[in-house]
Amino acid sequence: MRRMGDDNEIYQEPSKVTVDDGVVKVEGPDAVEVKMTPEAADETSERLLYGAMQALGQKHLEETLEKQREKSDVAD
After folding, report:
1. Are 38 and 22 in contact (CB under 8 A)?
2. Taking the CB of the first residue and of the last residue of the chain, which one, N or C, has fewer CB atoms within 10 A?
3. How far apart are the first and last CA of the chain?
4. Cβ neighbours of residue 71 under 8 Å, at least 6 residues apart?
5. Which pLDDT value is given to residue 3?
6. Contacts of 59 (CB under 8 A, 6+ apart)
């Protein structure tokens, strides 16, 4: 069984989310399909949001540090 992420690919496209008979269905890249209870989907969404905010913060920090390095290189 091939698992998503085995090739360490980073996906750019968001997953598709639908609801059918009270079940939340998430369809993502690499033919990933997950069905969750509303409660599991709610907790997963919180975890995803927290992770996304951490990653965006890291990205912003790296961009800021890179700009500072560029300014320092120009000043030298």
Report:
1. yes
2. N
3. 54
4. none
5. 61
6. none
Question: Six-digit token pair at 20?
Answer: 């059918």
Integer Cα distance of 21 and 70 in angstroms? 54
pTM (two decimals): 0.73
User: Token match 């598709």: residue?
Assistant: 16
Distance of alpha carbon 58 from alpha carbon 73, whole angstroms? 22
Q: Which two three-digit tokens encode residue 67?
A: 């700009």
Q: Looking at residue 60, what DSSP letter applies?
A: H
Determine the residue type at 46: E
Residue 61 to residues 32, 44, 53, 64, 69, Cα–Cα distance (Å): 32, 26, 12, 5, 12
Calpha distance 57→46 (Å, rounded): 17
Please write the tens of the pLDDT for every residue from 7-54. 788 999 999 999 999 999 999 998 899 999 999 999 999 999 999 999
